[in-house]
Amino acid sequence: MNYTNDFDPLDPKTYCTVITGGGGTAVGRTNNITTSATTNQIHVTGDAIFNGNINWQGRDMRSWFESVETRLAMLQPNPELEQEWSELAELRQRYMELERDILAQQQVFDILKKCDGV
To answer: Is the pTM of this model over 0.85?
Structure first.
């Protein structure tokens, strides 16, 4: 890993550490980033900006987040379209009601399953 400090010595608010390595960059205030060469760890308290991908236990976090965003976007309402298309708003309302009913039924089934095991 390479460490560089990018700061204005006359302005302590700009003290910043840039850590590069493994094809990515981590940026943070110097008092918020600590590293350990013996444990290969970086500890960040506060915000951090990563310019590059993060791999966690062999998983590509960029594609994982993109996959989650894609799945969640399917059910995110679009208020502008709902104002224009009342059917869309009605479908969303019906979906929420159906989801609530199904979750309530699942709770009942879970209770009954526990009772069967007693």
So the answer is: no
